Amino acid sequence: MPGFITNPADIPPYLLAGGRSSRMGANKALVLLGGESLLARIATRIGQQQRKSIVLNADADWSDTVGLPLLPDTLPGKLGPLAGVLTAMRDAAKKHPQASHIATVPIDSPFFPSDLVARLAKTIEGRDEIAIAASSGRDHPVFGLWPVSIADDLETWILGDDKRRVRDFLARHIVRKVDFAMIQTPIGPLDPFFNVNTPDDLIAAETWLAALEQTP
Ligand SMILES: Nc1nc2c(ncn2[C@@H]2O[C@H](COP(=O)(O)OP(=O)(O)OP(=O)(O)O)[C@@H](O)[C@H]2O)c(=O)[nH]1
Ligand SMILES: [Mg+2]
């Protein structure tokens, strides 16, 4: 039986990067922000919170993984972010039999909170509960803690639900939500889950990064 969360820093972290990057038109993980790839930035940020080694959930043909182990989706066909979550659960069940939960972070949100996993973990009261992040009234379920105990249910749902809406899967389980505040910067409030999906988002992210660097 897996143990329950004792130290949030021990929750195994997985970077979800198995998407198509269709709006960016190039692999989002490797676009540069402030001269550094999103992948490298996000790996550093999650590595500052988590002690277990970081796994990159992405297609098997990636060449530049900044040294991270590569874990392709268990189900073929790019079935969405929850296919990455499932892959992470299966991997953790093998490699971290003590872990009740895994942590997931997408590859395109470079400003996510430095206390993300600790705050999500604090809200979990039962070993089968999910915790997700929210800001400004919007949920960000790709930033989540997921119990490995629900892997079979997730697989059945992915294979059986054509729409695969994340909120429909969440409705099957107990979900704790944690609201994170805006980051105050000299040019205004920044959503910590600001998402780099398009080339224009990348330009905006450069502006936010410069503003953050001026923030005391
Ligand atoms: N493992 C895995 N991750 C996925 C899949 N689809 C999306 N993701 C990841 O989920 C996160 C959020 O998805 P999006 O922002 O839509 O990213 P995307 O699908 O690459 O981009 P678009 O093609 O422009 O929608 C990103 O980190 C993606 O890499 C998938 O089929 N498998
Ligand atoms: Mg996105």
TrEMBL record:
EC number(s) from the headed UniProt entry: 2.7.7.77
Stretches assigned to the MobA-like NTP transferase domain: 15-173
Top EC group: transferase
Entry binding sites for Mg(2+): 108
Keyword Ribonucleoprotein carried by entry: no
Cofactor: Mg(2+)
Any matching Pfam family: NTP_transf_3
Keywords: Cytoplasm, GTP-binding, Magnesium, Metal-binding, Molybdenum cofactor biosynthesis, Nucleotide-binding, Nucleotidyltransferase, Transferase
Annotated catalysed reactions: Mo-molybdopterin + GTP + H(+) = Mo-molybdopterin guanine dinucleotide + diphosphate
Compartments, record wording: Cytoplasm
Gene3D superfamilies cross-referenced by the UniProt entry: Spore Coat Polysaccharide Biosynthesis Protein SpsA, Chain A (3.90.550.10)
Binding residues for GTP: 16-18, 28, 57, 73, 108
GO CC aspect terms: cytoplasm
Superkingdom per UniProt: Bacteria
Gene Ontology MF terms in the entry: GTP binding; metal ion binding; molybdenum cofactor guanylyltransferase activity
Similarity comment: family membership: Belongs to the MobA family.
UniProt note: domains: The N-terminal domain determines nucleotide recognition and specific binding, while the C-terminal domain determines the specific binding to the target protein.
Quaternary structure annotation from Swiss-Prot or TrEMBL: Monomer.
NCBIfam families reported for this sequence: molyb_mobA
Xref: HAMAP family: MobA (MF_00316)
Function (record text): Transfers a GMP moiety from GTP to Mo-molybdopterin (Mo-MPT) cofactor (Moco or molybdenum cofactor) to form Mo-molybdopterin guanine dinucleotide (Mo-MGD) cofactor.
Name of this chain's protein: Molybdenum cofactor guanylyltransferase
